[in-house]
Amino acid sequence: MAQSKSIYSREYGVFLDLLRAERLAARMTQIDLAKKLKETQTFVSKCERGERRLDMIETRRFCIAIGANYPEFAAKLDAAIEQSAAAKRIAPRR
């Protein structure tokens, strides 16, 4: 099966949900994160909504700014993607 290259893939959606959850768990607003990243709140918002795709280096910067351990974040992401895929496989068809 071919993998989708869309930034709106299920996997990328899981990534965005986890990134946002990590920011919220750190009790940071988008403005707080933007200041730490030396970016604008609009930049953070676009990243979290999937309007701007993050690469690995930028994701690592986000993790550092949030105070999250990047390897642990990657492991959480992998587990969340696997869980999402498993849920999709067992979901009843409509």
From TrEMBL:
UniProt cross-references to InterPro entries, sorted A to Z: Cro/C1-type_HTH (IPR001387), Lambda_DNA-bd_dom_sf (IPR010982)
Gene3D superfamilies in the record: lambda repressor-like DNA-binding domains (1.10.260.40)
Pfam families: HTH_3
MF GO annotations: DNA binding
Domain HTH cro/C1-type as annotated: residue spans: 19-73
Protein name stated in the entry: Transcriptional regulator with XRE-family HTH domain
Organism: Silvibacterium bohemicum
